[in-house]
Specification:
This protein has about 260 residues and is α+β, with helices and mostly antiparallel strands. It has two domains: about 100 residues, Thrombin, subunit H, CATH 2.40.10; about 100 residues, Trypsin-like serine proteases (Thrombin, subunit H, Beta Barrel), CATH 2.40.10. Helix content is about 20%, strand content about 40%. The strands form two sheets. The protein has a six-stranded antiparallel barrel with strand order 1-2-3-6-5-4. Strands 7-8-9-12-11-10 form a six-stranded antiparallel beta barrel. A hairpin with a 7-residue loop joins strand 7 and strand 8. It is globular and about 70 Å long. The protein starts with a helix and ends with a helix.
Length: about 260
């Protein structure tokens, strides 16, 4: 009986020692890494879908008269998905890629954003940064409940290999999230200004202007473009670093 109690005590002490080691290494317990668990809803509430109101001409069949089919030209309107944007501050400023807005600027189309709760609100363009392919929008309405993105990190604090998430509106299907890693930092291209963050997180047309965030939801960059031979995702995806985005934002908003 005595040996049974002795063995039980040793088993208990071994279990406690093992748990203590795991906790020390950051592996034990359900809540040890709770601060590092990605909160999609918190980050997604700061990312918007951008829509433009387009008008186009179309031929439509007219009601047959005396057995003769006739056609007439009509003007139709509808909202089309252009890309994504990120809420940058509590004043309703939203940052996105300039190329997302190109058609709307040229055709003077009305712009709307769709928030995470599904509500739609009109926005206006207050400034552009052509060199860095960035633009800032602002909500026309006041007193809209919005949730600005967290942005506490600089490019120097981003590490190759760390886990990241891309949030946006690919192919106009609605807000989506994809996971990957930082593949490289400081990528440069002959036909583009500045340097870029490279990630293998899945990005497709429509993700442009969306958010690349870390596991804590901090904005690392604005999704900008993909390198692809097919037009779809091939794991070569690039984002404008947070430092460049912040500098562009402040320059535009100061001149508002």
């Amino acid at each position: 009986m005595r040996s049974f109690y002795t063995l039980s005590i040793w088993i208990l002490l071994g279990t406690l020692a093992g748990y203590g080691f795991l906790a020390f290494m950051g592996l034990g317990g359900k809540n040890d890494n709770s601060s590092n668990v990605f909160n999609f809803e918190k980050s997604a509430s700061s990312v918007v879908n951008i829509w433009s109101l387009r008008r186009w001409r179309e031929w439509q069949e007219k009601t047959p008269s005396l057995g003769l089919r006739r056609w007439k030209q009509v003007i139709k309107t509808g909202f089309f998905p252009d890309g994504s944007g990120v809420i940058f501050d509590k004043d309703g400023h939203i940052i996105t890629n300039l190329h997302v807005l190109n058609n709307s600027i040229q055709l003077k189309q009305k712009l709307l954003i769709e928030l995470y709760d599904g509500s739609n609100h009109e926005v206006e363009i207050i400034g552009i940064d052509r060199d860095n392919d960035l633009a800032v929008l602002k909500l026309v309405e006041e007193n809209v409940e919005i949730f600005p993105i967290q942005r506490k990190r600089r490019i120097e604090e981003i590490n190759i290999g760390e886990t990241v998430f891309a949030i946006g509106n690919p192919q106009g299907l609605g807000q989506s999230v994809s996971m990957g890693i930082i593949s490289a930092i400081g990528r440069k291209f002959i036909n583009k200004e500045g340097s870029f963050i490279q990630t293998d997180a899945s990005i497709n047309p429509g993700n442009s202007g969306g958010a690349l965030v870390d596991t804590r939801g901090n904005l690392l960059g604005i999704i900008n473009f993909i390198e692809s031979t097919t037009g779809g995702n091939q794991g070569l995806n690039f984002a404008i670093p947070i430092d460049v985005v912040s500098e562009s934002y402040f320059e535009i908003v100061k001149g508002e």
